[in-house]
Amino acid sequence: EPEVTQTPSHQVTQMGQEVILRCVPISNHLYFYWYRQILGQKVEFLVSFYNNEISEKSEIFDDQFSVERPDGSNFTLKIRSTKLEDSAMYFCASSVPGSGSYSNQPQHFGDGTRLSIL
Amino acid sequence: KNEVEQSPQNLTAQEGEFITINCSYSVGISALHWLQQHPGGGIVSLFMLSSGKKKHGRLIATINIQEKHSSLHITASHPRDSAVYICAVKMSSRLTFGEGTQLTVNP
After folding, report:
1. Between chains, do B93 and A33 touch, taking CB under 8 Å as contact?
2. How many separate helices (H) and strands (E) can be counted in chain B?
3. Tell me, what's the pLDDT at A100?
4. pLDDT tens digit string along A46-97?
5. Quick check: B96 contacting A, CB < 8 Å?
6. What is the rounded CA–CA span in Å between residue B51 and residue B70?
7. Lowest mean pLDDT among A14-18, A111-115, B28-32, B60-64
């Protein structure tokens, strides 16, 4: 069965450094998402992306964050200047086309990237 | 108050028992997901439903839109069902997650 793949599985970065988390969504999916889960807390929505632009973003997704689909297969999350509180598990998800700008189809999740900021 | 409330937070069962996990939400939604998260952290989508009931193997999910309530049932539970079960509601493009229910099934 097709999978969403995320790399790396674990990223350790010094505070203040830039980090790029990478995701390869399922190939025929057109809607892409990033979520994060701080240790011991619930999963939180960061951003959704469709048709090469952000559809929706949360209050967490400030100017330090950006997303990009640099080619036909990758979807990336960049954190420009990492802070200690960015330490979390970051999940990428994708879903098949729905009708309109939102997909009402199930979201398929990757295994996550654990980001540790020192 | 959280938009998505799950109960119980923790549940311990003996192998073979029937399990019910509940989810209540306070907002208008287009769909509700039940997800499973294993100790390694990966998330697997179990069901997405917007009305009625769905069944997959030993798992059954129901939703009552009027009452803003959903349940996940596991029949004949097994130790391999031990995981965190998460309810998430869909509003526009985003999923809003509950805190999760930690299920432990003992042999």
Report:
1. yes
2. 0, 11
3. 58
4. 999 988 899 999 999 999 999 999 887 899 999 999 999 999 999 999 998 6
5. yes
6. 10
7. B28-32
Task: Outline where DSSP puts E strands in A1-117.
Answer: 5-7, 10-13, 19-24, 31-37, 44-50, 53-57, 65-68, 75-79, 88-95, 108-109, 113-117
d(CA B88, CA B95): 6
Query: What is residue A35's three-state secondary structure?
Result: strand
DSSP one-letter code for B50: S
Contacts of residue B42 in chain A, CB cutoff 8 Å? 109-112
B42 close to B21: Cβ distance less than 8 angstroms:
no
Q: Are B41 and A89 in contact (CB < 8 Å)? A: yes
Query: Do you find a cis peptide bond into A70, omega within 30 degrees of 0?
Result: no
Strands B10-14 and B101-106: parallel
Q: Going along B26-58, which residue ranges are E strands? A: 31-37, 43-49, 52-56
What is the Cα B47 distance to its own chain's centre?
9
What H or E segment, with its residue span, contains residue B19? strand B19-25
Please name the residue of chain B whose CA is at the shortest distance from the CA of residue A31: B93
Asked whether A91 and A107 are in contact (CB, 8 A), the reply is: no
**Nearest residue in B to A92, CA atom:** B43
